[in-house]
Design goal:
heterodimer; A: mainly alpha; two-stranded antiparallel ribbon; 2 strands; B: alpha/beta; 2 domains; 4-stranded antiparallel β-sheet
Chain lengths: 300, 338
């Protein structure tokens, strides 16, 4: 790239080569125009993710650290309790969940960036519904986070989780659901926040407790009472649990190990079915999406 | 090609504003403005920062709700027919609103998709608007690497992507070097010739206001003058005399006593208007009684128009305001909560 050429271009643009004016018209709002808007907002998230190669790499660092460094480091301590199951295998579903969660929150944060850098205004003045923008954002964030999850799923073999089609499909579906719900949650928060720093702060305050309490790193049976209550209230619990069930169903391990490690979430002694858990995540995602849309539409 | 109609309203003006008011809590930002912009006109809103220009533009663009009053843009009410207004307007904001991570082309395509431009026309139209601002050969460059001038040009191109009937430009040349400012004005003139478009812009550069078909001078939330630049200047009817003296206060007193002229200090010099400036100068030297170091006589400019309507120059008005802002900030910092 030569600077002199740039300067010449900057100074005097050439007259257009086509004298005839291409006139377009903007149609009235319709279902199809809204779909088109959702699609382009979704595509923008993908374009930006693809452009940001560094983010793809850096967002893999954390899960790898958890799985292999924490997993290997605490293995000695945990050996007695895991009945021969590697700690990294046990925490794999939890790590997958938090990795998806962080990516999804980060995607949602782009609304705050957009506001700070002015791009949000470009979308706000377009003749489309605010809900289309929010839906496009949520789907985009979910897709990006889902892709991140897919990378972790590819690592399954390294933590002794078999690549059986049904298991992979199940995990993939669950993590996509989680990605959507968390993005909706993040967007709901991001709509109210004007500065990136505050968003990061709020995120730390919400995401870290959710992660630690969810049982991503420990079995949820036999917890102290206060922690058990918090655990059952934490939405992330209901994403980690069905995923762990799927993983453990595919493992060939002693029943004693299974009983301790995959004890499952219970409400007053009743084991909550996996489908209900997945349904709860979906419902939460939809509720938060509605709140996000409502909030976003209310801003001027 | 519709010709701008100077006087008298055309059946559907591009913009019609009635008693528009906008209050923010205590601040009365816009205090009842009335005006019409004819189809095909280049209409300028002139005034110091904080005069209410941007607030007015935001109401016309449906970004802010008027406290009271009404406005139509392209025949649609800005409150009740918000979407119809949005379909018909293009916007170039004062602050950048491009996605710096995407290429120029991706930014424009996104805009076309959001506005629902016919798919087969997106590329030809994009080529046209980008060629106009001289950025077609940079279409695949990531916008983050563009200079300030290039970004502004791209924003103008984007604002035109959907063939709006009214283009709003909020300070389109602010912070740009003179060369880029000139080229932006050449696009605006070119646009006027090629497309059936009405241009509504705000500026606080007096020299740029000269290019407009008509200008409205805004001060403290009100329109104090509205006409073509030529008419406004002709209305002044006086030449502007600026003198540098040993003692400005004594000079002002002497001017009042000797000639009955009301002068004021503006931009560091004693300034006043007289019907025939050149003939007045010899009398001035003979009778003033205060030593004069330099004298300057000029024909009325828009600066004088502004001064005669607001009692200050646009630069002084902005200086006063920034002083006021600083004072308020100091008060807030010293007396504010801890």
């Amino acid at each position: 790239m030569s600077t002199t050429v740039d300067r010449v271009r900057e100074a005097g643009p050439q007259p257009p080569s086509r004298p005839d004016v291409v006139r377009v018209s903007v149609p009235k709002r319709s279902f199809w125009s809204e779909l088109r808007a959702i699609k382009i907002v979704w595509r923008r998230e993908l374009i930006r993710f693809r452009a940001d190669k560094l983010r793809m790499v850096t967002s893999l660092v954390q899960p790898l650290l958890f799985l292999f460094v924490l997993g290997a480091g605490l293995q000695g301590l945990a050996r007695a309790g895991t009945h021969g199951v590697a700690l990294k295998t046990f925490i794999y579903p939890g790590i997958l969940c938090i990795s998806v969660m962080f990516t999804a929150m980060f995607s949602a944060a782009s609304i705050v960036w957009d506001r700070e850098f002015g791009f949000l205004r470009e979308m706000m003045v377009a003749p489309v519904r605010r809900s289309s923008i929010v839906i496009g954002k949520c789907l985009g964030g979910a897709t990006v986070a889902g892709f991140q999850g897919l990378l972790i799923i590819c690592l399954a073999g390294l933590v002794h989780v078999p690549y059986t089609p049904l298991l992979i499909l199940g995990i993939f579906g669950l993590q996509l659901l989680l990605a959507f719900a968390i993005t909706a949650f993040g967007v709901m928060i991001a709509v109210r926040i004007k500065q990136m720093q505050s968003f990061m702060g709020v995120m730390q305050m919400i995401v870290m407790p959710m992660f630690f309490i969810s049982g991503a790193l420990f079995p949820v049976a036999g917890l102290p009472r206060w922690l058990a209550v918090l655990n059952r209230l934490d939405p992330l619990t209901y994403a980690v649990d069905p995923m762990r069930r799927l993983v453990f169903a595919a493992l060939t391990i002693p029943p004693a190990a299974k009983r301790i490690l995959d004890s499952g979430v219970t409400w007053f002694g009743w084991r909550v079915p996996g489908l209900l858990e997945a349904g709860m995540i979906l419902l939460l995602g939809l509720v938060m999406l509605s709140i996000a849309i409502w909030e976003f539409s209310a801003t001027e | 090609m519709p010709q701008p109609e100077r006087n008298g309203a055309s059946p559907t003006p591009a913009i019609a504003v009635r008693d528009l008011v906008k209050n923010f809590d205590e601040v009365r930002a816009v205090r009842g403005v009335n005006f019409e912009v004819a189809l095909g006109e280049v209409f300028g809103f002139l005034g110091p920062n904080g005069a209410g220009k941007t607030t007015t533009i935001n109401m016309l663009c449906t970004l802010a709700k008027p406290t009271s009053g009404a406005a139509t843009v392209a025949g649609h009410d800005v409150v009740t027919e918000r979407d119809d207004v949005r379909r018909n307007i293009g916007l170039v904001f004062q602050d950048p609103t491009l996605d710096g991570y995407m290429t120029a082309q991706q930014n424009l395509k996104l805009h076309a998709e959001l506005y629902g431009v016919q798919s087969d026309l997106v590329v030809p139209r994009m080529r046209q608007v980008m060629e106009m601002v001289g950025l077609w050969d940079r279409k695949d460059t990531v916008v983050g690497t563009f200079s300030g001038g290039m970004r502004r040009r791209l924003e103008i191109a984007r604002g035109l992507m959907h063939s709006p009937r009214v283009l709003f430009l909020d300070e389109p040349t602010i912070g740009l070097d003179p060369q880029t400012r000139r080229s932006i004005w050449s696009y605006i003139r070119e646009l006027k010739e090629r497309e059936e478009i009405t241009i509504f812009m705000t500026t606080h550069y007096m020299d740029e206001a000269e290019w407009c078909d008509r200008i409205a001078i805004m001060d403290h939330g009100q329109i104090v003058a509205l006409d073509s630049p030529e008419t406004l200047k002709a209305q002044i009817g006086e030449d502007r005399v600026t003198i540098h003296t040993q003692d400005d206060q004594a000079a002002i007193t002497a001017l009042a006593q000797q000639f009955g002229i009301e002068a004021r200090i503006s931009e560091g010099a004693v300034t006043f208007g007289v019907p025939a400036g050149e003939e007045f100068v010899p009398r001035l030297f003979a009778q003033l009684g205060v030593p004069i170091r330099a004298v300057n006589v000029s024909r009325p400019t828009l600066d004088d128009v502004f001064m005669s309507h607001t009692g200050t120059t646009i630069r002084d008005a902005e200086e006063d305001q920034s002083k006021h802002r600083n004072r308020v900030m100091m008060q807030m910092m010293s007396g504010g909560r801890r």
